[in-house]
Amino acid sequence: MYGDATLAQVEAMANEGCTHMVLLMRHSAREFNPDVHDLENPLTDEGRELSQRLGRQLPKAYTLRGYASPAGRCVETAQLCLDGHAAEGGSSTRVRPVEGLGVFYVLDQMKMYRVMRDMGSLQQFVSAWSDRAIPQDALIPAQEAARILMRVVSEKLSQSVAEKQIDVCVSHDLSLYLVRDRLLSESPDQGPVEFLDALLAFRRDDRVWLQSARTNPVDITAELGR
């Protein structure tokens, strides 16, 4: 079920004694209405329930704090996750939209969508982006974009508000494909980014580590310029 891989990652890290982790997570199940701008497509009813389910099943020893791309489906995913956590007795703070979790790397949205359509799949598009085969005026270079995004995400690790904390940072599948490819060497064709899939960041020995459900932790400290 959507979200199970994320829950398994969190449980494993909690069992290892990790007290602060950050999830860079795709939003929940969404509508695909071609008659509206893609970023305005909302969650489905199933997506709303899945978001709450994820929150209900996250470990209650952790306080949740939410951040999200300004897109409505991302903000709603984060809020419902925190609501589900609180409904089962967990502690949570608030959800705040953050531009750095959105599609900040897009310089020309119309050109990007045209290239993406011609590529045929999101995975092919990400590979072309990484290979610098996308027009330079359409997107920020892939490596630079991945570094910026992970600086936004990893900075949360220095902002503890509780003894045990999970920061839920809700973004888009394109962002997760990008970071997987550039910082985890996990190519787009190694598997899809499903709804509620997440990359998990944590700090150990003054280093910042990142993992997906498929990879062992990778030290990304140098990529963050630290």
If you had to describe this structure to a student in words, what would you say it looks like?
It is built from 7 helices and 7 strands. With 226 residues, it is of the alpha/beta class. The protein has a 7-stranded mixed beta sheet, with helices on both faces. A hairpin with a 6-residue loop joins strand 6 (207-211) and strand 7 (218-219). Helix 2 (45-57) crosses helix 3, helix 5 (122-130) crosses helix 7 and helix 6 packs across helix 7. 43% of the residues are buried.
What features would you highlight for this structure?
7 strands, alpha/beta, 226 residues, single chain, seven-stranded mixed β-sheet, 7 helices, globular
Multimerization status: single chain
Computed Rg: 17 Å
Number of strands: 7
Q: In angstroms, what separates the terminal alpha carbons? A: 37 Å
| Fraction in beta strands | 15-25%
Order of helices and strands: HEHEHEHHHEHEEE
Helix content: 25-40%
The pLDDT mean sits at 95
Low-confidence stretches: none
Instruction: Give the class from helix and strand content and strand pairing.
Output: alpha/beta
**Helical stretch tally:** 7
The strands making up the biggest β-sheet line up spatially as 3-2-4-1-5-6-7
Short description:
The chain is of the alpha/beta class and 226 residues long.
Topology overview:
Blueprint: H1 4-15, E1 20-26, H2 45-57, E2 63-68, H3 72-87, E3 92-97, H4 109-119, H5 122-130, H6 142-154, E4 165-171, H7 173-183, E5 198-204, E6 207-211, E7 218-219
Helix pairs in contact: 2-3, 5-7, 6-7
